[in-house]
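Lecture 7 notes: from sequence to structure.

We start with a single chain of 212 residues. Read the sequence below before looking at the structure.
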Amino acid sequence: MQMSDLPPLAATIHVVDDDAAIRGALQRLLGAAGYTVLGYDSAECFALAPTSAAPGCIVLDLNMPGLDGLGLQDLLARSDNPLPIIFLTGSGDIASSVRAIKGGAEDFLPKPVRSEQLFDAVERALARYDSGRRERAEREVLNQRFASLTPREREVFGLVVQGLLNKQVAYELGNTERTVKEQRRSVMEKMGAGSLAELVIAAARLGIVQAA
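Now the structure, written as tokens:
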């Protein structure tokens, strides 16, 4: 199933650390590497910033006064914020690192962090964001296509992707096989599917059938 291509990712690295010296050093390091970088002196400051929803990733200090790194991670998860998080910490807290990774963090790095480690983690985080962005765009396109179907076409869609033949669908819906054939053609066209396999994949992404 062909989806429209998205424009190249214009990403911003958000550095969240209450230590001004560390925050400044990270901003200079990432900025010198060509990244667009914004700094925040607290998790609360980042959470309230309008730019926090822009494409990119977060380089996040674990231990901060008030809302800490794990707290911000939980907050962003509840709000469905898609920005991947790279944690930095000066303490080797295994329990926190496990919680962070289980919560979806891209990486958990020690302070002081080596530039190679940081750049590698940032590139992985941006690639992850871009992949997720494309998946979200594809789901939105599918949802729009599905919304364009009539109620009867949705019924036909649901039965066809279960593997029913036209005559079986006609029997289930009390229609003629000729009518179902035309409705099936319309469903395929509106969903942008060139084959039954593509239609089944679309149905799985929409949650209409379980993925194989």
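The chain has a mean pLDDT of 89. Keep this in mind for problem set 3.
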